[in-house]
């Protein structure tokens, strides 16, 4: 949720308010790609905000968490979880556990008494928040009160609604694919795919020594960030507080808060990320056998092949040098 909220706020900070404004004398076509569609901000966020740190964190985990900011991030994430905003995800987890026949593995004691009531009260609160966020988003989309109406005024409101659910599904598939791929990575080759597209997906992903798996992770990251920014643009509200157009007549303070993208982050986290991850962990073969999985895998590998995010490797070396990060083997041995 925190990652998505930051992405949605970045979109608010970097989105052009007027597509007709001159920027560095760039042609309209270049401005369309880098500013209106947001390719510049997408690559900037993907490389500096995600891939660079992920490259170092994968090999320097001890140094990466050995600072107060990592501790602050952990406590903030725990506070968000405790608040119950995302607790509807646990309901989805229980439903999928029953559907798949796989019991939930947990070291926690069974909930009882006040703990039981407090947990399910937060689940109900989370469902209410999710419902309100969906109502805000759909109402704004149908009334042309989102940033889509600013960036792409020629796109009908109905098409904006379709694009909202379409890119949510793309994000969900990519999130689920990651879980499904790692779930079957250790299975024998003959057990990985049970259909034509399942076998083609596994053959492509694990070709050779599995070199396409990290390539998929990079291409997937770029595709996910691209979809995040598009969803942020679609759900971002274009309502100025104090002008009498507040959605559902809420207060100016509440409208200003929603303008940061909170509602979009809640919807995307629950419906386009966590739900699909839980579904993939319960039914990994269903994801592998889906032809859409094979198509998205090819797209992700192509994006990695283009080298759009190759700069992350260079920046990771610079960051490692500046921060003095050491490999984990320095502390724990081989």
Automatic annotation (TrEMBL):
Q: Name one GO biological process term.
A: silicic acid import across plasma membrane
Q: List residues traversing the bilayer.
A: 32-52, 64-86, 119-142, 162-185, 218-239, 260-280, 292-316
**Which positions carry the signal peptide feature in this UniProt record?**
1-16
Q: Which keywords has UniProt assigned to this entry?
A: Membrane, Signal, Transmembrane, Transmembrane helix
InterPro entries, per database record? Silicon_transpt
Top-level division of the source organism's lineage: Eukaryota
UniProt KW Ribosomal protein keyword: no
Is Glycoprotein given among the entry's keywords?
no
Tell me the Pfam families matching this sequence.
Answer: Silic_transp
Q: This protein is called what?
A: Silicon transporter
Q: Which organism is it from?
A: Thalassiosira weissflogii
């Amino acid at each position: 949720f925190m990652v998505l909220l930051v992405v949605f706020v970045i979109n608010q900070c970097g989105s052009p308010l007027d597509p007709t404004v001159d920027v560095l004398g760039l042609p309209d076509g270049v401005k369309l790609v880098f500013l209106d569609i947001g390719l510049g901000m997408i690559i900037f966020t993907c490389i500096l905000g995600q891939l660079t740190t992920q490259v170092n964190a994968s090999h320097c985990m001890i140094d990466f968490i050995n600072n107060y900011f990592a501790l602050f991030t952990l406590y903030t994430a725990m506070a968000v979880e405790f608040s119950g905003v995302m607790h509807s995800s646990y309901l989805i987890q229980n439903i999928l556990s029953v559907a798949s026949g796989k019991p939930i593995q947990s070291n926690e004691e069974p909930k009882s008494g006040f703990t039981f009531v407090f947990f399910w009260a937060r689940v109900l609160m989370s469902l209410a928040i999710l419902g309100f966020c969906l109502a805000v988003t759909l109402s704004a989309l149908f009334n042309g009160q989102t940033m889509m109406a600013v960036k792409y005024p020629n796109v009908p409101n109905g098409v904006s609604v379709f694009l909202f659910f379409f890119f949510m599904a793309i994000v969900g598939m990519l999130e689920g694919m990651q879980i499904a791929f790692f779930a079957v990575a250790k299975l024998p080759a003959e057990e990985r795919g049970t259909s034509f597209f399942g076998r083609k997906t596994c053959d492509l992903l694990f070709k050779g020594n599995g070199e396409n798996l990290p390539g998929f992770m990079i291409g997937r990251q770029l595709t996910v960030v691209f979809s995040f920014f598009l969803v942020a643009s679609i759900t971002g509200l274009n309502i100025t507080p104090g002008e009498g157009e507040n959605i559902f007549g809420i207060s100016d303070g509440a409208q200003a808060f929603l303008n940061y993208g909170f509602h979009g982050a809640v919807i995307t986290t629950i419906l386009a990320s966590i739900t699909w991850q839980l579904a993939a962990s319960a039914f990994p073969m269903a994801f592998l056998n889906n032809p859409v999985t094979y198509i998205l895998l090819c797209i992700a590998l192509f994006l990695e092949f283009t080298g759009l995010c190759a700069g992350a490797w260079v920046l990771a070396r610079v960051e490692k040098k500046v921060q003095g990060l050491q490999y984990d083997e320095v502390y724990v041995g081989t």
